[in-house]
């Protein structure tokens, strides 16, 4: 277990907000499996040499498009279309066929993805400790309502949160502080009482800091870059369980 840059003031915290994907719900692992199922279901070996080529191509375009979406430069509909259309076109699929295929791939991928239930190690235990210690607990995510709620149901977490705040409720994405302010309004709490736990140093950590929140950067296994805006950096959720157990209650 490892913690860094610990300037977190636990005495101020009354409400803990968590990002969903790759903070508590294992998006990377669940998506890896879902993309393989889509590859097999739709016989994408017609266009891609192997499943890893399909996954790598999809994830490259998806990552680029999510960066644009988080900056408010493209719409949700554009992201959802292009992340499937672009890999097909890159693989040489006829544009007409690609245009017919992408909506089916989109629908099937989200259905399959939402049915997976694997969580990040320690996620359920962390939420249990936060509840036991009396914190308010919420989700704040840039994900889309239908699929995010399905993930929570499939993983058995749908009853664990006081509030679930999603960017498409108000068409504003993290790191825009308006989404953080909206979350505070829904929960009836304040920025000085709030902390966000997230894996994205830009949307979660810099966004939270600019909104006046305290921030906990979950840099899972040291995979990501450093964050100058983090009040606390941890590389596993077990570290957070220990800290919250130690600092309140």
Mean pLDDT across all residues, rounded? 95
Q: Calculate the terminal CA-CA distance, rounded to whole Å.
A: 22 Å
Q: Largest sheet, described in full? A: 7 strands, mixed
* Overall outline: elongated
Give the helices and strands as they follow along the chain: EEHHHHHEHEHEHEEH
Counted beta strands:
7
- State the share of residues found in helices, binned by percent: 40-55%
What fraction of residues sit in β-strands? 5-15%
Order of strands in the sheet with most strands: 1-7-6-5-2-3-4
Poorly predicted sequence stretches spanning 5 or more consecutive residues = none
Radius of gyration: 19 Å
Structural class: alpha/beta
How many helical stretches? 9
Structure notes:
The chain is built from nine helices and seven strands, in the order E-E-H-H-H-H-H-E-H-E-H-E-H-E-E-H. It has helices spanning 27-41, 51-70, 76-90, 95-115, 123-132, 145-154, 177-187, 201-210, 237-247, and strands at residues 3-4, 15-18, 136-141, 163-166, 194-198, 214-218, 232-234. The protein has a seven-stranded mixed β-sheet, sandwiched between helices.
Topology:
Layout: E1 3-4, E2 15-18, H1 27-41, H2 51-70, H3 76-90, H4 95-115, H5 123-132, E3 136-141, H6 145-154, E4 163-166, H7 177-187, E5 194-198, H8 201-210, E6 214-218, E7 232-234, H9 237-247
Parallel strand pairs: 2-3, 2-5, 3-4, 5-6, 6-7
Antiparallel strand pairs: 1-7
Helix pairs in contact: 1-2, 1-4, 2-3, 3-4, 4-6, 5-9
């Amino acid at each position: 277990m490892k913690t860094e840059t610990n300037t977190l003031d636990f005495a101020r915290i009354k409400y803990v907000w968590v990002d969903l994907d790759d903070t508590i719900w294992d998006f990377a692992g669940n998506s890896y499996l879902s993309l393989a199922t889509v590859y097999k279901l739709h016989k994408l070996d017609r266009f891609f040499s192997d499943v890893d080529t399909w996954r790598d191509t999809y994830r490259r375009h998806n990552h680029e498009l999510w960066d644009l979406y988080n900056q408010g430069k493209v719409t949700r509909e554009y992201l959802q279309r292009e992340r499937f259309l672009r890999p097909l076109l890159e693989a040489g699929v006829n544009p007409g066929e690609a245009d017919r295929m992408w909506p089916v791939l989109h629908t099937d991928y989200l259905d399959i993805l939402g049915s997976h239930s694997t969580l990040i190690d320690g996620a359920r235990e962390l939420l249990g400790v936060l509840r036991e210690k009396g914190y308010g607990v919420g989700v704040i995510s840039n994900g889309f309502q239908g699929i995010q709620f399905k993930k929570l149901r499939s993983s058995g977490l749908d009853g664990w949160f006081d509030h679930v705040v999603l960017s498409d409720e108000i068409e504003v994405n993290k790191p825009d502080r308006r989404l953080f302010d909206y979350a505070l309004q829904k929960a009836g709490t304040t920025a000085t009482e709030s902390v966000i736990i997230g894996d994205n140093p830009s949307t979660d950590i810099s966004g939270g800091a600019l909104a006046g929140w305290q921030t906990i950067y979950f840099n899972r296994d040291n995979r990501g870059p450093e964050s100058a805006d983090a009040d606390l950096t941890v590389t596993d959720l077990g570290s957070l369980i220990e800290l919250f157990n130690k600092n309140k209650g």
